[in-house]
Design brief:
This protein has 314 residues and is α/β, with parallel strands linked by helices. The chain has a single domain (4-312), classed as 3-Layer(aba) Sandwich (Rossmann fold). Helices cover 37% and strands 14% of the residues. It has helices spanning 28-36, 63-77, 93-106, 111-119, 135-146, 154-159, 165-183, 210-213, 239-252, 259-269, 273-276, and strands spanning 4-8, 41-46, 86-91, 120-126, 190-196, 219-223, 280-283, 308-312. Helix 8 links the parallel strand 5 and strand 6 (219-223). Helix 3 crosses helix 4 and helix 3 (93-106) packs across helix 7 (165-183). The chain is globular.
């Protein structure tokens, strides 16, 4: 069965720019991963995680509201793909949104929400602050300045406070759910943390320290970059890319990139030859789902790419 790999950006991120290295015109899920995992459905999700906007007020959604929107949108996207395995690749705040989204699915309003939880096979966390982050001081200072003219999203800032009750509730509830799945004999959700090795120059420190990024009892790796650049790979030789790819391959299974098995998977998947080719399309809810092509929305449109998907292959 084909696997969906869903990329979720973090604080002030963007569904494409977060994953695009400086000087490159394509995000690495397109330029690198689509070749190394040729039968995976690769998806990037965008939501308004800006702390401040210089030209408009920041969105005021909480982590739970972002999590609920993610699940509602994913439910629509998976209408014809129940049971398809899911792997999440998440950066910073995106990891908290992902965890909380799966907690929503643990008490589902619809069976398809339960299916999302049961289908989740793994989560790769890149710089997710499981125990808070020192970035809070910096972003609060910026927000205070900009709040003179615009309204920042303080609820997202507060979640990143090391002693945040919301953060603790998400972390504890999620890990309890993961452990309970093992006790109940269900398919486990595999977790792996990637932490940043380098400090951000203008902060003089790492945004998320290793002790905050790691998850007790689960594996971890370092990525030789700072918090913002740890999601941006340029070539297949980048050590960070090799480590993330290795983890994804381990979770998905060797047969995904064995040529003889790829042919067999495609033959039994029901996909047409046109669909098997790398098809670029954006799906904006409100448009007809699944239509190939690029949306007419321009990237300069303030609302573009906030609660929307970009996918590679159906």
């Amino acid at each position: 069965m084909l696997t969906s790999i869903i990329f979720l950006h973090g604080l002030t991120g963007h569904r494409e720019r977060t994953w695009t290295a400086a000087g490159e015109d394509k995000p690495w899920p397109e330029s690198l991963l689509s070749s190394d995992l040729p039968t995976a459905r690769i998806i990037t999700y965008g939501y308004d995680a800006d702390v401040v906007h210089l030209t408009r007020p920041a969105g005021q959604n909480t982590v739970r509201e972002h999590a609920t929107s993610l699940i509602n949108d994913l439910t629509s996207l998976r209408a014809d793909a129940n049971g398809r395995p899911i792997i999440f690749v998440v950066h910073s705040l995106g990891g908290l949104v992902c965890q909380d989204a799966l907690l929503v699915c643990n008490n589902p309003n619809e069976n398809i929400q339960r299916d999302i939880l049961l289908s989740t096979r793994g989560i790769a966390f890149l710089g997710t602050p499981h125990a808070g982050a020192d970035l809070k001081r910096f972003t609060t200072a910026v927000a205070n300045i900009v709040s003179l003219v615009k309204k920042p999203n303080r609820s997202l800032l507060q979640v990143l406070n090391r002693n945040s009750e919301t953060l603790a509730n998400i972390k504890n509830g999620f890990l309890t759910m993961v452990n309970r799945r093992l006790e109940d004999g269900l398919e486990p959700i595999k977790l792996h943390a990637f932490y940043e090795e380098q400090a951000v120059d203008f902060l003089g420190c790492r945004v998320v320290e290793p002790d905050s990024a790691k998850i007790a009892g689960h594996g971890f790796d370092a990525i030789p970059a700072n918090h913002m650049d740890m999601t941006k790979f340029r070539t297949v030789s980048d050590i960070g890319y090799k480590r993330v790819l290795g983890r994804l391959r381990n979770w998905i299974g060797d047969d995904l990139y064995d040529d003889s098995k790829i042919v067999s998977r495609i033959a039994t998947s029901g996909l047409s030859g046109a669909t098997v080719r790398i098809i670029w399309y954006r799906t904006f809810f409100g448009l007809v789902h699944g239509q190939p092509g690029v949306s007419s929305l321009e990237t300069s449109n303030p609302g573009e790419a906030l609660a929307s998907w970009r996918t590679w292959r159906r």
